[in-house]
Amino acid sequence: MAEETVFGKIVSGEIPVDLLAETDRVIAFRDMHPQAPIHFLVIPKSTEYANVVELAAGDPETLAEMVTVAKQLAEEHANGEFRLIFNSGESAGQTVFHVHAHVLAGGLEERSLVGS
Ligand code: AMP
Q: Which pTM value belongs to this model?
């Protein structure tokens, strides 16, 4: 079980966010520090998985659902094309240890990588 994180508090409603999408297993909302014109986060409601490697091993259906929601959001808010990033581990830039997909779109043509 992962330690409680800011995303756990978003899932429980303790920290309010504007939801862009919600399914039985996942939610999506805007990143508070956008790195691209469109920068959303898609996260599982489960607080069990710290990173995408754990999620892929433990609940691949939810991982697939995160990708589907990312695609739907990219279709609603951009042209359907998007970059999906999972920072996995501190040295890779992960700061919140509740698995999350960064969905980036718009104006990415000149960026080979997105990071802080
Ligand atoms: P990472 O560095 O991959 O762990 O990404 C964590 C992301 O969560 C960062 O891009 C933050 O800007 C974002 N973030 C942290 N807290 C919030 C929040 N309360 N609402 C929206 N985005 C957040």
A: 0.94
